Amino acid sequence: MFGEGKKLLRAAQLQVRGHLRVPGADEDEAEPEDEVSKALAVWGLQAADPEDVTVEEEFYLWPECVPTFQLWNVVQTQWREDVSGRRTGLDYAGLKACMDMQQIPDDERAALFWGVRVMERAALKEWYPR
Predict the structure, then answer these.
(1) What's the predicted TM-score (pTM) here?
(2) How many other β-carbons are positioned within 10 Å of the β-carbon of residue 40?
């Protein structure tokens, strides 16, 4: 499990930056800049200038990271915010509820929780660098 941390951390960084595209089986290939703009829009962001957007090289998740990444995407509605609207972390009760609704077996939950926490810390660090 420990080797997966770097892949999950990188996936969260790329997703927060709007540089991660997850192609679907029926999805047409769009221009990378369009995909970046769409990804930024998901987070309520917009690039200052389309030419400022850089698309990184291809990034692949290891198969064992995919369940954590899928759960990460499900819990994106579970962010806690302070009074200024700054995200402070995920609501872990909401994370547990998501795992319950997806009927994730008890013996898989600890590893998934650890992976989501790695991604949570990476996202917060990207949004609010010190």
Answers:
(1) 0.69
(2) 17
| Spans of all domains in the chain | 4-127
Which residues face 79 on adjacent strands?
A: 90
User: What is the mean pLDDT of each successive set of 10 residues along the chain, which is 130 residues long?
Assistant: 72 83 56 64 64 63 90 94 95 97 96 95 92
3-state secondary structure of 79: strand
Q: How far apart are CA 2 and CA 79, in angstroms?
A: 25
Name the nearest CA neighbour of 21 among 33, 34, 35, 42: 35
Q: What is the DSSP string of 88-114?
A: EEE-HHHHHHHHHHTT--HHHHHHHHH
The beta strand positions in the chain, using DSSP E, are 79-81, 87-90
Residue among 114, 126, 115 nearest 62 (CA):
115
Is the separation of the CB atoms in 60 and 90 below 8 Å?
no
C-alpha closest to that of 123 among 88, 74, 71, 78: 88
Q: How many CA atoms lie within 13 A of 120 on its CB side?
A: 22
- The H or E element containing residue 116 is helix 106-127
